[in-house]
Design goal:
Blueprint lengths: L1 H9 L2 H21 L1 H4 L11 H14 L6 H19 L8 E4 L2 E3 L1 H7 L20 H14 L4 H9 L2 H6 L12 E2 L1 H12 L2
Antiparallel strand pairs: 1-2, 1-3
Helix pairs in contact: 1-8, 2-7, 4-5, 5-7, 5-8, 5-10
Length: 197
Amino acid sequence: MWYQSLLSVLKSVDRYRSIVQALLKFNTYRCDKASNALTGNKMTTPLLSALTVAKHILARMEERSQPVNNLKLQKLLYYTQAWYLGFYGVPLFHERIQAWAKGPVVPVVFQRYKHYGYMNIRNSPTDAIEPLPPEVSEHLNDVLDAYAHYSGSDLSTMTHVEDPWTEARKGLEDAAASNRVISNDTMKRYYSNRVNE
């Protein structure tokens, strides 16, 4: 059951403390940058594709010499979208995120990389990556600074105790397959409240 996974992660006080400290550092650092969004000035960046954002995550993880498999990629993609909604009130990419048993997933990105299984993903040299607007690039770096050092399993466990995933999975068995969507409104509400904590 998912709560047993949660307990195994949280049994280590040091690990739990480091998770909390990283999230607090992330929130504190980003609060100053979010002032325009919180006063009604929304970002005007055009919507990207989730696959474009995923390619940038993979490239930056390679630069950091940090391995990433599909499970971890999905969670980093989720947190990138969720915090963007929390800070700016608008989505970064247009694809919907679904509440799968192991956490949030963007199906089109999962399908693109599923042939890797649980192995680490590498960007193909033939994958052209369009540049990101500077503010999006900075946002992505901030999210990776906060979350990239966690394993995919740790990130999955973290999403399982947050409202967006639990609300979307309400009434489902722990391991039940699901294509229920985690709504942008739920992510926006939950993460904007965390900005204000």
